[in-house]
């Protein structure tokens, strides 16, 4: 029998219909595309002149900017969604509100060699990747025009990746995105009513029950959320209350890198290298260390297509129960 599950943070309802999937096996992956290695990749080492000039890089020794010798390279997106130039110029056009598309859109190229999946990268690159996320968010926050920064990764063409060389992106926006605003609003209402952080309560309950826990360390917990929107959706949350990803310590960063790497490896084994997205939801730049919001990383495998029902209602139909997803992923854990 199907279930309706209410997300305690956003108040959104999810339709959980395990009967429609192959429980507890992965969904059908026959539609997932395999991308052949391109004959030319602008992100590979030696092709630095094929991208815009770098704005930041982690480099070896005395290697020069915009040349070989880098571990991670950050460049402006050649085809940005938002651009740094200009002013916002917010204005009204009749009943409509309009502003210029001012923001920033950066590409963080992860490793000089042409690997297409994060789990192919050397493990010791993962802490550096997360540190670059932190530094670029802090840099974007210095621009008073920007209110929010989203770090995200697209892996596979079905997840929106146009180039398959490992990379992540940062888009800073002059407004707080609707999804984040919904999360923050739901978390604030819960805190006002109960005086506690909803995310901290979720962590406590999930650790007590254990059915949806995928992996944990001293500082972080990976779990299949109770109202998972997608098959094998996974969240990674800091156990201690933190509103901003950029407040992560060096010790925490190393543990997060290990847990993220293991979770992605488990997903690759369980779902046979699926396309996926991950996003970091963090507090807006102008917010302090709020008592109600808790940063987290969401991993969203793209093994099930959205259709008319989802777009028309806002409901998500998930064909794999999160308890089954956690169990399947736990079978592939490597300690």
How would you describe what is shown here?
With 335 residues, the protein is of the alpha+beta class. It has one domain (3-20, 42-84, 97-330): HIT-like (HIT family, subunit A, 2-Layer Sandwich), CATH 3.30.428. The protein is 25% helix and 22% strand. The chain is built from 6 helices and 15 strands. The strands form 3 sheets. The chain has a 10-stranded antiparallel beta sheet, sandwiched between helices. A 3-stranded mixed beta sheet has the order 1-2-15. Helix 1 (125-141) crosses helix 4 (250-271). The chain is globular, with a radius of gyration of 20 Å. Residues 19-35 have low confidence and may be disordered.
**Could you please say which CATH topology applies here?**
HIT family, subunit A
Strand arrangement across the biggest beta sheet: 3-4-7-9-8-13-14-12-11-10
From the helix content, strand content and strand pairing, which structural class follows? alpha+beta
The number of distinct structural domains comes to 1
Oligomer: single chain
CATH 2nd-level architecture: 2-Layer Sandwich
| Morphology call | globular
Mean pLDDT across all amino acids = 89
Low-confidence stretches: 19-35
Summarize the amount of helix as a percent range.
10-25%
Strand content: 15-25%
């Amino acid at each position: 029998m199907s279930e309706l599950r209410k997300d305690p943070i956003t108040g959104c309802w999810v339709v959980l219909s395990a009967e429609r999937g192959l429980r507890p096996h992965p969904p059908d992956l026959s539609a997932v595309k395999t991308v052949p290695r391109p004959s030319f990749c602008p992100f590979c080492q030696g092709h630095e002149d094929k991208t815009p000039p770098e704005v930041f890089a982690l480099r070896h020794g005395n290697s020069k900017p915009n040349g070989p010798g880098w571990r991670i390279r950050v460049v402006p997106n050649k085809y940005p969604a938002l651009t740094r130039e200009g002013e916002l110029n917010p204005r009204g056009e009749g009943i409509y509100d309009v502003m210029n598309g001012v923001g920033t859109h950066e590409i963080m190229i992860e490793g000089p060699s042409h690997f297409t999946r994060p789990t192919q990268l050397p493990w010791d690159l993962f802490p550096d990747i997360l540190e670059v996320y932190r530094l670029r968010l802090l840099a974007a926050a210095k621009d008073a025009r920007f209110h929010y920064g989203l770090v995200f990764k697209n892996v596979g063409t079905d997840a929106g990746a146009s180039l398959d060389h490992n990379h992540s992106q940062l888009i800073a926006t002059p407004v707080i995105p609707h999804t984040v605003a919904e999360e923050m609003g739901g978390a604030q209402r819960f805190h006002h009513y109960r005086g506690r952080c909803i995310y901290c309560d979720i962590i406590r309950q999930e650790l007590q029950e254990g059915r949806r826990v995928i992996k944990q360390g001293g500082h972080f917990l990976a779990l299949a959320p109770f109202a998972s929107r997608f098959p094998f959706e996974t969240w990674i949350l800091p156990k201690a209350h933190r509103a901003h990803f950029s407040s992560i310590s060096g010790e925490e960063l190393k543990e997060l890198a290990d847990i993220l790497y293991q979770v992605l490896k488990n997903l690759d084994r369980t779902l046979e290298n699926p396309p996926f997205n991950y996003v970091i939801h963090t507090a807006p730049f102008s917010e302090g260390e709020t008592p109600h919001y808790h940063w987290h990383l969401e991993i969203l495998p793209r093994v099930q297509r959205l259709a008319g029902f989802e777009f028309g209602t806002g409901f998500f139909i998930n064909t794999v129960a999160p308890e089954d997803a956690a169990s399947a992923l736990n079978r592939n854990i490597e300690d």
